[in-house]
Amino acid sequence: SQQGEEDPQALSIQEGENATMNCSYKTSINNLQWYRQNSGRGLVHLILIRSNEREKHSGRLRVTLDTSKKSSSLLITASRAADTASYFCATAPMNYGGATNKLIFGTGTLLAVQP
Amino acid sequence: KAGVTQTPRYLIKTRGQQVTLSCSPISGHRSVSWYQQTPGQGLQFLFEYFSETQRNKGNFPGRFSGRQFSNSRSEMNVSTLELGDSALYLCASRRQGRDTEAFFGQGTRLTVV
Predict the structure, then answer these.
(1) Which of B42, B58, B90 sits opposite A42 (nearest CB)?
(2) Collapsing DSSP states into helix, strand and coil, what is residue B97?
(3) Distance between CA atoms of A6 and A106, rounded to whole angstroms?
(4) Torsions phi, psi for A59 (to 5 deg)
(5) Cβ of B88 and A33 within 8 Å?
(6) What is the rounded average pLDDT of the residues A84-96?
(7) Which of B55, B106, B107 is closest, CB to CB, to A99?
(8) Is the pLDDT of residue A98 over 90?
(9) Sign of the CA dihedral B33, A105, B96, B104?
(10) Taking CB atoms and an 8 Å limit, are B42 and A108 in contact across chains?
(11) What share of chain B in percent tops pLDDT 70?
């Protein structure tokens, strides 16, 4: 399977603490994206990092990418109860045969932020 | 700007029946992809359409098919439903370009009984 893996599978923290999630993938990529999903609903895009970037920030989010290790991490600082959700990494594989918008998702991390 | 709209939101079907799900992308987006989400397999890519052409297909049996219309709206069809087809089916649309984000609809929850 091409599917990426995330760890931890589940994470429980207190409000105000930081949350770190890790993602590993298998193929060469154009970019890596992080999405959030609340209770089995649609996914919401959080941040995109290109294959030639190493770190990116957006508000309380910080993403790193190490293409040599095929891994990425998402850090959420000063977490809030509203951050409780499932978080997925998704890779856009490099497609030598032509254009594609296919995304390969990781297994997800379930984050619970206790008030 | 309206988001991605999927209909219906919930569906219950019997084994052996067929089902059609609909997706209206964000205005101006010509790329539409479909994903299946189950507790066991996670999020799996089904297929992708761009300008009415299937550009990529995931590893699913031929019972799963789709199409895209000239207005970029897309439908996916599952024939001869099996219990294992019960899942959340998600549609996503994107602008053209290599490094663009996907916008997802709320999904269609299909239950096969």
Answers:
(1) B90
(2) coil
(3) 6
(4) 60, -120
(5) no
(6) 90
(7) B55
(8) no
(9) positive
(10) yes
(11) 99
Say if residue B61 is preceded by a cis peptide, omega within 30 of 0. no
Per the structure block, which two tokens stand in for B55? 């550009």
Answer yes or no: are the C-beta atoms of B6 and B110 closer than 8 Å: no
Contact B31, B94 (CB under 8 A): yes
Dist CA B98 CA B79 (whole Å): 33
Encode pLDDT of B2-16 as tens digits.
899 999 999 999 999
Cβ atoms B21, B109 nearer than 8 A: no
Distance CA A108, CA A34 (A): 10
Task: Say if the Cβ atoms of B104 and A44 lie within 8 Å.
Answer: yes
Structure tokens at A19: 């949350």
Q: How far, in whole angstroms, is CA A80 from its chain's centroid?
A: 18
> What was the pLDDT predicted at A96?
60
Helices (H), A21-96: none
Distance CA A57, CA A8 (A): 21
**Interface contact A92-B56, CB threshold 8 A:** no
Closest CA to A111 of A8, A16, A34: A8
Tell me the chain B residues in contact with residue A106 when contact means C-beta distances shorter than 8 Å.
42
Residue B44 to chain A, least CA–CA distance (Å): 7
| Spatial distance between the Cα atoms of A9 and A110, rounded to a whole number of angstroms | 6
* Extended beta strands in chain A, E state: 5-7, 10-14, 19-24, 29-37, 43-50, 55-58, 61-66, 71-76, 85-93, 104-105, 109-114
pLDDT tens-digit map of B60-89: 999 999 999 999 999 999 999 999 999 999
